[in-house]
Description:
heterodimer, A: mainly beta, 7-stranded mixed sheet, 4-stranded antiparallel sheet, 11 strands, 52% strand, globular, B: mainly beta, 5-stranded mixed sheet, 9 strands
Amino acid sequence: KAGVTQTPRYLIKTRGQQVTLSCSPISGHRSVSWYQQTPGQGLQFLFEYFSETQRNKGNFPGRFSGRQFSNSRSEMNVSTLELGDSALYLCASAPGVQGGTDTQYFGPGTRLTVL
Amino acid sequence: DAKTTQPPSMDCAEGRAANLPCNHSTISGNEYVYWYRQIHSQGPQYIIHGLKNNETNEMASLIITEDRKSSTLILPHATLRDTAVYYCIVRVTQGGKLIFGQGTELSVKP
């Protein structure tokens, strides 16, 4: 079974621009979560989507948004980029089934550099 | 979600067992213990999880104390490729975010 895929793997943007990152979950998984990893703050939760609805949200400004499509693929968008948004953005998928442990499996990440 | 405490770094000789401790004294009855590892700049890799019984899979063993306030991840025969940051996380089984601490940086040396 193919793992979580993220595109693009690397991205360079300038301040003020916006960016869209894409995540394709493991086949059959319905939950997709996004995380930001920086050297200073470590791994931080951004948000989780399940069945096209945002189910959980971390403590990030409204410039960070996401969505999930009917095929469970997800995108996250960052508007008005700041230098501090330079980070590794990680997507994780989970089955989302009730009654069992909902282990999250991570993709390779998208490395975003803001100049 | 409960907080976890891990040593910041550990060394292990290649071929020996690596025992990584984790304290989670405020864990709730419905929270599982999860372990992930992250090799430099890659996505975290799921290793193992458990509730109260010891667990073993092809990668590692997880030993949880009877009071569930601490656990140990055991890599039975560490190799150089096991050099990574290991994260211990406690969370409820369904949904919810993973709260990553600073983890333990394991260095496996020849």
